Amino acid sequence: MTDIATLQKIAALAKISLEGEDLDALVADFESIIAFADAVNAADLSAMDTTEHEEPYPLREDVLLPSSPTERVLQNAPAAHDGYFVAKD
């Protein structure tokens, strides 16, 4: 059972603020989401053979290609040092 205190704790973890009048509606929404997840979790999948399927997309072979020259990659960088991008602190 979700209550307002639990919802406020979740909101604090998510770094969002919730106002008083929104809390009751959000508790109801949260409860319905949890009920839906419980229903999906309780679905009986024993009759399904999940191993009998083909790949939805054929995988391509990995091909080794030469990379771009370091100088070309770094030519538009605002700052570079020893072949690496330099990030501001």
Descriptive notes:
By secondary structure, this protein is mostly helical. The chain has a domain of 38 residues. It is 42% helix and 4% strand. It is built from 3 helices and 2 strands; from the N terminus they run αααββ. Strands 1-2 form a two-stranded antiparallel sheet. The longest helix has 22 residues. The model has no long low-confidence stretch (mean pLDDT 86).
Provide a compact summary of the structure.
This protein is mostly helical and 89 residues long.
Q: What is the topology, as strand order, of the major beta sheet?
A: 1-2
How far the N terminus sits from the C terminus, by CA atoms, comes to: 45 Å
Largest sheet: 2 strands, antiparallel
- Gyration radius over CA: 26 Å
Q: Which percent bin holds the helix content?
A: 40-55%
Poorly predicted runs of 5 or more residues = none
Q: Say how many strands there are.
A: 2
Strand content: under 5%
Coarse shape: flat
- SSE class: mainly alpha
Number of helices: 3
Give the averaged pLDDT, no decimals: 86
Order of helices and strands: HHHEE
